[in-house]
Amino acid sequence: MTIRKTxxxxxxxxxxxxxxxxxxxxxxxxxxxxxxxELARTADVWLSIILSGCVTFLFVWIGIKLSRLFPSTxxxxxxxxxxxxxxxKGLGLLIAIxxxxxxxxxxxxxxxxxxxxxxxxxxxxALSSLLLWISLYLxxxxxxxxxxxxxxIFPIIILACILICFLGVSVFEPNHLRPVxxxxxxxxxxxxxxxxxxxxxxxxxxFILCQMERPQQATRVVGMxxxxxxxxxxxxxxxxIGVFSVEGVITRTWPFFDLVRSVEVDFLLLERLESLLFSIxxxxxxxxxxxxxxxxxxxxxQIFKVSYxxxxxxxLPLIYIVSHIPKSRNEISAMAMVLGYAACILFAxxxxxxxxxxxxxxxxxx
Length: 366
Hints:
This is GerAB/ArcD/ProY family transporter. By secondary structure, this protein is an all-alpha fold.
């Protein structure tokens, strides 16, 4: 009985993959086409997304190698074993602050889009409160409850993304993508600067690998998850450029949503599907927000040895305050860039250094 109960409480490979993909594909799904094209000014930004996905896989693989050396603990716990309590708690606190900021960013993003497209005139506090309290309720169930809910949400999101991309093909203009690499590779490298936040969330295995039923399949989870995310990011960007052109994408705040609004469907029950698809996108943001909220609360509770439930309630108003720091949409975009660079430092450079330190110490003992 004890063995069965333990297995039931661990994340399956499917649940981990669903968490991995849903954590990555947050608000950036609707803004990435504009952000990349704005930097590159060419239609070759789909190459930037693919290259960024490959780089992300490398650093996530490094994080998996590090986590496997400490199979029964999360990143917040074993970083203190590697660097000492003082430095380890400092790094953990920085990461927890990062996740609080990610939560605030996702909350603000969903408020901006919802108030503009769906519930115009609805007070921001009402929209925020709904997402915050539902996410709090789910987080109280722990990572197992989160995994079960996201496993249900995941196929709905994937089907919705496939439907949007399929409908976009009907108004797609291939000439907007030509000629390929007309300005060489420099614009491609330049556009990669806008992609870090798009793949933020892929580091979640640092915190949930110890909760997996089969941690040896973590690399497979990363390969499948990043493959799905890169595919949808690339296809959505290509279709947005093909429909609106490079100049048209730059002038739109949310090109992906404008794509949905520009397509009329005669062979389905609803001629215009934006309300339905926007609602499904809110489920996606809910998944991303909940995982960021969970990671922040997990970090604070493990660093300061306080109750996880109390930490969730403590962070609730803090996240709401952070979501109101940006005063305009330009400041929201600036916040996204800062968070993307922070993700590069915290989850690419830091785990690599920690892995080298761990190997060096083990070789010294040998």
